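Journal club prep — side note

Before the paper discussion, L.F. wants everyone to see what a predicted structure for a comparable chain looks like in C-alpha cell form. Sequence:
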Amino acid sequence: MQYSTVTKEPERDEQAEILKALALEMVLKVHRKARHGLRINLQSSLDRDLSFDSLARIEFLLQIERTFMVKLPEETLQKAETLGQILEALQAIRDIDGSMPMNARRDKSIVLPSEGRSEPTGAGTLLEALDWHVRADPNRTQIIYTSESAEERISYGTLKSRAEAVAAGLQQEGLRARQTVAIMMPTSPEYFYAYFGILLAGGIPVPIYPPARLSQIEDHVRRHTGILNNAQCTVLITVPEAMSVARLLEASVPGLRKVTTAETLMSRREELIRVPVQTSDIAFIQYTSGSTGNPKGVVLTHANLLANIRAIGSAVHILPEDVFISWLPLYHDMGLISTWLASLYFCNPFVVMSPLDFLSRPERWLWAIHRYRGSLTAAPNFAYELCLKRIDDERLFGLDLSSVRVMANGAEPVSPETMERFSRRFSPYGFNPQAMSAVYGLAEATVGLLVPAVGRGPLIDSIQRDPFVRYRKALPARPDDPNPLRFPACGRPLPGHEVRIVDETGLEVGERVEGHLEFKGPSATSGYYNNPEETKKLIRDGWLNSGDRAYTAEGEVYITGRVKDIIIRAGRNIYPHELENAVGALAGVRKGCVAVFGSPDPNSGTERLIVLAETNLNKGEEREALKEAIFRKTVEVLGEPPDEVMLAPIHTVLKTSSGKIRRSASRELYESGLIGGRSQGVWRQVIRLSWQAALAKGRRWLTVGREFLYAAYFWTLLTPIALVTWLFTVIFSGATGGGWTINRLASRLFLKLSGIPFQIRGLEHVPVHQPHILVANHASYLDGLILFAALPGPYRFVVKKEIQQNFWAALYLRRLGVEFVERFIVQQSLEDVERMAAEIGRGHSLAFFPEGTFLRMTGLLPFHLGAFVLAMKGNLPVLPVALRGTRALLRDTQWFPRRGPIEVTISKPILPPQDESDVFSGAIRMRDEARTEILRHCGEPDEGSY
C-alpha cells in the first residue's frame, strides 16, 4: 500500500460518520456487544467511553489506516484521546486522487447507538438542552397533558415560547438574576411554562406543594412561611383560585413582594432579556414537605440535574421509542426530574396527569400506559397498593400493559409483598413481572442513586431475624425459616456515583453488615440553602449522609430503614415533632408527652400514622372527646387523619435522660400491644424493653470495640511479617522460585495467625509443569498475598511500571522476578508484550491482574487484552483464578481491616482457540471466557457491562 501526504480533502462529515462506524465495529469486536446507552460521537474518549486498552487502541488505529489508506503519524498513536482528535489527524492527510476509497464508504447497514436519539450531549444547562431541541425539531411533542375529558399536547417550541413569556413577565415584576421564585401550583401545562420561565429569567425555582383541595390553602400558609423565609423568595406563582388566600403569605414573608399567576405573567407581552446561566448555577431548590421548624432546601445545580438525568438514562437504557407515563406531583423531585426533565432531555414523549386524577381513579394510570404504549413509569409503594385495592376487574377489560419496560417502585419503603401481588394481579394483562424494580434515591442526590439492572425483576433477600436485630448481620435465612426479614434489592449506584455503608465510627463495614448509607458523585448536592448547620451535618470528608440504613450483598444494596423517625406516608414526609407539639397543646393531653410515629402496615404497603398521647382523663366520654380533638388537630396540621389515636396512662411515652421523645422505643411498645393496660404492667414491659435496648446497644459497642482490637492486632502482626519477608526476599531469593517459597510461607503464616478463614478450590487445575498465563480479579491491597498463599508457583507477576518509583517496593519486586509494563505509552506497551513473550519462551509462567487496578466499590471491571494476546502468541493456556472476600477485608482507600472468609477458586485452564488464526480475535475470545469464569466465582457484579 502506498501512502501520500498531499491529496484533496474528502468531506469532513462523511469521514466523521465512517470513524463512528469503525468505532462501533471495534466496540462490538472487543466487547462483543455495544454497552447500553453508548453514544458514539467525536467527543467519545477511546479509554473512558469506548474502553479500549492499549492493544485495542492499536488495532483500531490500524483499521483506520486500512480503511482510509493512509499512514497516521506516530504521535497520533500515542496522543489521540478522542475520535475528534483522530479526525483532525485524518484531515491533515490527503488522498492521492482526492477521492475516498470504496472501502471507506459508510455501510448504511451499520446503525450507531446514537442514531434516532435526539440528545443534547453537549448541553451544560437545562436551558441549553431545551434550546437544542427547539433548534432540532421545534414541533416535536414533548408533553401530553391528559385528563378525563381533554388532552393538550405541548411541543418543544411551544414550551420555550410560553416559558419566555413567563420570563419576560417576571423581569417586568423586577426579578433579578439568582433570586428565588416559588411555584405553588397543581400539575397543569402552566407548571411547565412557569418552571422554565423562571430559569429563562435568571431566577431559581422553588417548588412547594399546593393543597390537596384549594379550599384548604390557608392550612398551608403556616407551613409555607418557614420555607419561603428560608428560601428568601421574592415572587410566588400560584393558581387563580388561591390568589385571595395566598396574599396572606405576603404579610408573613417580608421578602415576598409579589403573588401572581402564570397566565398573568404570560399576558404582559414584554421583551425577554436572556440572562446568562452557567452550569454551576442553581436549577432549583427542593424542600421536603412539612418542613417548617428548620427548613432544609436541597440545592441542585444544572450540573447536578444533568449528571443525574444522564446517569439514569444510562442505567435504565432509555431508548428513542420510550414513552414516559406519570401522575407524580411536579413539586416532588421524582415527578419533576426522573419523569419530566429526563423525558425532555432524551426527547421522549411525557404523558402526565394530575395526582388527584390518579387518586380518585387509579386505573387511569394503567389505561394511560395502555393508550400511549408507555414503557417507563414510576410510583411510590402505596400507589401499587391502591391499584390492587381500588381497581375492580371489570375496569380492566381489554387493558394491555405489555409495553412497560421499567416500572419503578420508590420514594417510600418498598414492600416485597406489594411487588409480588401487583405482578400476579396484572400479569394476565400483559404486565411483565421482570419490569418491576425497587429503586432508591433522595433529594440530596438530585433524585436517583440506586437502580437495578433493567429486566432483572424484583430481587428479595430473606435474612435471619435475630442476628440482624441483635448484631446487624444480614445472614441469609433458610427456606424453612418461619419468620425471616425480607428486603428488596435496590440495585447498584448510578454510573459515576459511589455508595458505602459505615458503622457508628464512620468506618466502612463488610458485606451483609448493616450500617449508615453514605454516597457521593456528580449528582450530590453542595448542601442546604441558607442552612450551614444542617449542611455541616450532611457532608463529611466528601461523603453525604443519606439518613438511611442499608447493607450490601453481591453488589446489590438493600435499604433497611431510616436513621431518623421521619414518617413517609403515601409518598409524603411527615415530621413527628410538628404534630406532637400541636397535640400537646390540647386540653387533657400532658404537654411534652406525645409520640408520633409510623408503624409498617403489611396490608396497605405503607406506614400507618400513630398518635400516642398521655392523659389523666378516665371518663369514657372525656376520652372519646379527646380522641376526636386529636383527630381534628391532626387533619388541621397535616391535611389528613391519623390511622390510630392511642390514649395512654402517664409515663407511657418513653424519653431520653434529656427529655427527648424516644419514638422508636414508643413504637416498639405500641407494636407489642402493651399500651392501655395497667400502669404497673406497662412499666414492667417498659423496663424490659429499655433493658433489651441497652443490651443491644452494649452488644453493638462491644462489637465495635472488638473490631478496633482486631485491626490493631492485624497490623501488629502484618508489619513484622512483611518486614522479615521483604528482608529475606531481597537477600536470599537468588531465583524466582526461592522468592516465591519465602513469600508463600510468610503469607500462610499470616493468614493462620490472623484468624482469617481461608479456602482454596481447584488446585488440581494448575498446570504445574507447563508454562501458562494466570489471570485473577483484583479487589484489594492483599490480593498478591492471597495468591502467594494459595498457589504452588512460582509466577512472575506483571505489574504497572509506576510502582518502580517506590525504591523499596521496586527492589523487593525485582528480586521476585516481577515484570513491569507500561500502561500509557502505546509503543512501549507493544515492546513489553514482546519482552514478556520471551520470558514465556524461557519456561516462566506469568500472573496478571487484567483489570489493571481495583476500586473501593464492588464489581468486576473490564479486562485488558495483554495477557490474552500473550497466550495466543505463545499458544499457552490461561488459568482463571477468582478471589472472593478480599475487597471486604481491606478495600481501596481504607486501612481498617474487616475480618471475613476468603475463597480462592481455580478454574480449568482455557486453551487458545485452534480455529482462530487472528491473534487479536483469539485473545478476545479467551478474555471473554476467562472473565465469565471469574465472574461466576468472585461474588461481585459485572461492572464491565453496566
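L.F.'s comment for the group: The domain at 12-104 is CATH 1.10.1200.10 (Non-ribosomal Peptide Synthetase Peptidyl Carrier Protein; Chain A). Keep this in mind when we get to the figures.
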